[in-house]
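For reproducibility, we list the full input for the ribose-5-phosphate complex.
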Amino acid sequence: MYIVPSSTAYNISRRLANILSCNVSNVIRKRFPDNEMYLKIIEDLKGQDVIVIGNTRSDSDIIEYLLLLDAVKEEEPQSITAVIPFFGYARQHMRYNNGEPVSSKVFTEAINIYADKIISVELHDEQTLTYSKVPFINLKIIDPVYKYFLNKNIDYVISPDDGGYERAKTIASKLDLPAYYINKKRIDSKTVKMELPEVDYSNKNILLTDDIISTGGTIVRATKLLKENNANKIYACAIHGVFALNSNEKIEKYVDELIVTDTIETKYSNITISNELAQAFRNKVKI
Ligand code: R5P
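The corresponding predicted structure, in tokenized form, follows.
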């Protein structure tokens, strides 16, 4: 068995390879003078079970990932499992307006050409799963998150919006803590007001959980509000640390600790999802 890593997924590939006791394949990468991407897998993958791991956060990530899948398929492996810890282009999981593409369908269908199974993590919307003809697993990451906070003296787990309340409740129940969510009210097209639930925040340590941190606006606004209400420590934790526009630098000024998983490899990736990926690969997760 081999893991073929994209350039965005070296650390997580090594962690998964350790758990599954398999090899990480060597990939040569070059750019042609016109900047087109070239890659070559060194190992002979004929008859092997192969996991191809990569994110699809940027356009270049997507090209690399598709080239890797094709290179692997040409080797005639026994099976290909596409592991995409952060499935980018998933925001557009449906057509909101005429003339728009359904980007998560485009990419899912492209992967279907190559893969026997797809594993991803906390997709933006589960509608993306319906675009796949091969089994597509969307992992929810709970255990490594709550375990990280076991000894942090957290008082409440809070989601910055109602959409993340289920996640907050599940993590809170594992920590035997109450969970709440912040009510977001749209005042006009540019203004969203956040309203905290009526709870005593004085000197409380709060775990703010979200699926994704992109511009950081959501986490920063929630943190400011909690601090205005005399909260003590704010731990901001998300599954995917996209950190668009270097928002991590802004967030660090407000929160006491910023933690994300290694779906995207950042310096805040103190939680690994590799055990969950291994379990899903071994078919221990229901589809
Ligand atoms: C919203 O539905 C999501 O759960 C996140 O709260 C949101 O995408 C975070 O985005 P940003 O970091 O740009 O505020």
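The domain at 143-271 is CATH 3.40.50.2020 (Rossmann fold). The pocket of ribose-5-phosphate is lined by residues 160-161, 163-164, 210-218 (CB under 6 Å). Both points were considered when choosing residues for closer inspection.
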